[in-house]
């Protein structure tokens, strides 16, 4: 930042500081431009407004109600600059802490307040988080196919688009459907209209197939391309250890969500048996979901996202703890995050020193039109852009054309009918 810019920034700060800014209104919007999104808009008496993402896939209306019925009345009249105090007020003051609905609602408020601060000070949010630690944010895309050959074709397409890192998922012989294998190739969205669809699962078929997938991909694409894989919480620790060990020759960037992580200590078993890097956390919503994993260095990447992890205020603290223990970030970034959350993630990613990688699934054309944004992709990297605040807006008139549509994520059963992890 040059001297003239610094003077302008300081002038903006001093002018804004002299004004007693207050939150005067907050609204919740639900729209479905291809999938459901919940957006919070907080307005101030100075005409500055901020946006926050409040989307919780399959439970969107629960968060919308939590915001409208419980949080918004508590925000009116408060100073939007007091992000730390407001966060603590909403977290500690509720008594019933944590949980995905509560933390998603808090995250929406937190994002909106950071957006207001950036706009008021006429600077991107990343400058308020410590500035840029890198020039761009490396992202990974999703390549999937009905079989290994089709997955390889999709990997090639993502490589042509400039991606340096690609998550690879393949259909499994003998199973009618497989997690991560989309009906289309760009806008993977597992939530479906109607009651929850049911998928079938076989651990043994899966464990036999996945090493064959990555053997084929390494033979075709060589060693330089970063390859990732998502298990989606479907193994026990010893099964995950077996998979991780079998994948070591193909040096994956990470093996994601190998087991459910309610029992954090379960990762000790996996760690004892494999050197394949481990990533977990997209369903986490507080530091308490990950503190053992971090402090015992049982994982390499923490996948908590800004929208389900309590916002930028909370995620910054978690990243600081993780940095001490050599754990890097790898935030969830599927299409169940609106461009508001994606922008917030990018401001976080570009500012923290222990950033690892960012998931990036492109939204539909309709979604991008409802949420015009300043972030951009080039050569395998995203950049949040230089617009003040988060750099995202919300077209209310256009959003009204896409009303809410009830949709559920699938459920999963083993071949014998036992309910299992989806």
Polypeptide structure, described:
By secondary structure, the chain is an alpha/beta fold. It folds into 2 domains: 3-125, Enolase-like, domain 1 (2-Layer Sandwich); 128-386, Enolase-like C-terminal domain (TIM Barrel). It is built from 14 helices and 18 strands. A hairpin with a 4-residue loop joins β2 and β3. The termini are far apart.
Portion of residues in helices? Answer: 25-40%
The general outline is globular
**Spatial gap, N to C terminus:** 48 Å
Name of the CATH class of the largest domain: Alpha Beta
Helix count equals 14
> What profile does the largest beta sheet have?
10 strands, mixed
Describe the structure using short key phrases.
single chain, 422 residues, alpha/beta, Enolase-like, domain 1, TIM Barrel, 2 domains, 10-stranded mixed β-sheet, 3-stranded antiparallel β-sheet, 18% strand, globular
How is this fold's topology laid out?
Blueprint: H1 3-18, E1 23-31, E2 37-44, E3 49-53, H2 60-75, H3 83-92, H4 100-120, H5 125-128, E4 137-145, H6 148-160, E5 165-170, E6 192-193, E7 198-201, H7 203-221, E8 226-230, H8 237-246, E9 254-256, H9 267-273, E10 278-280, H10 291-295, E11 301-302, H11 312-324, E12 328-329, H12 339-351, E13 358-359, H13 365-370, E14 376-378, E15 381-383, H14 396-399, E16 407-408, E17 411-414, E18 419-420
Parallel strand pairs: 4-5, 4-13, 5-8, 7-17, 8-9, 9-10, 10-11, 11-12
Antiparallel strand pairs: 1-2, 2-3, 4-15, 6-16, 14-15, 17-18
Helix pairs in contact: 2-4, 3-4, 6-7, 8-9
């Amino acid at each position: 930042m040059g001297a003239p810019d610094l003077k302008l920034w300081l002038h903006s700060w001093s002018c804004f500081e002299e004004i007693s800014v207050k939150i005067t209104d907050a609204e919740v919007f639900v729209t479905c431009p291809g999938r459901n999104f919940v957006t919070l808009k907080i307005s101030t008496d100075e005409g500055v407004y901020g946006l926050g993402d409040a989307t919780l896939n399959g439970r969107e209306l629960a968060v919308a109600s939590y915001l409208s019925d419980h949080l918004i009345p508590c925000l009116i009249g408060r100073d939007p600059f007091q992000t730390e105090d407001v966060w603590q007020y909403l977290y500690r003051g509720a008594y019933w802490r944590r949980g995905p609905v509560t933390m998603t609602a808090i995250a929406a408020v937190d994002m909106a307040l950071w957006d207001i601060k950036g706009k008021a000070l006429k600077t991107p949010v990343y400058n308020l988080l410590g500035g840029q630690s890198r020039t761009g944010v490396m992202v990974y895309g999703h390549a999937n196919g009905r079989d290994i050959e089709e997955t390889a074709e999709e990997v090639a397409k993502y490589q042509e688009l400039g991606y340096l890192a690609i998550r690879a998922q393949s259909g499994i012989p003998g199973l009618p459907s497989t997690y991560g294998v989309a009906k289309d190739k760009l806008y993977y969205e597992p939530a479906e209209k109607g009651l929850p669809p049911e998928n079938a699962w076989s651990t043994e078929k899966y464990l036999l197939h996945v090493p064959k997938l990555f053997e084929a991909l390494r033979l075709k694409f060589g060693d330089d391309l970063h390859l990732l894989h998502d298990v989606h919480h479907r193994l026990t620790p010893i099964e995950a250890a077996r998979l991780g060990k079998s994948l070591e020759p193909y040096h994956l960037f990470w093996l994601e969500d190998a087991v459910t992580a309610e029992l954090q200590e379960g990762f000790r078993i996996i760690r004892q048996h494999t050197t394949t890097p481990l990533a977990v956390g997209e369903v986490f919503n507080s530091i308490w979901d990950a503190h053992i994993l971090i402090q015992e260095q049982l994982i390499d990447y923490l996948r908590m996202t800004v929208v389900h992890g309590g916002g930028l205020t909370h995620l910054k603290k978690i990243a600081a703890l993780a940095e001490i223990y050599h754990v890097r970030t790898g935030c969830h970034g599927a299409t169940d995050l609106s461009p508001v959350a994606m922008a917030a993630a990018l401001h976080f990613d570009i500012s923290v020193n222990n950033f690892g990688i960012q998931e990036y699934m492109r939204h539909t054309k309709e979604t991008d039109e409802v949420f015009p944004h300043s972030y951009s992709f080039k050569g395998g990297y995203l950049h949040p852009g230089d617009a003040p605040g988060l750099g995202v807006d919300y077209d209310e008139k256009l959003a009204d054309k896409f009303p809410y549509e009830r949709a559920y994520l699938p459920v999963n059963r083993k071949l014998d009918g036992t309910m299992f992890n989806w």
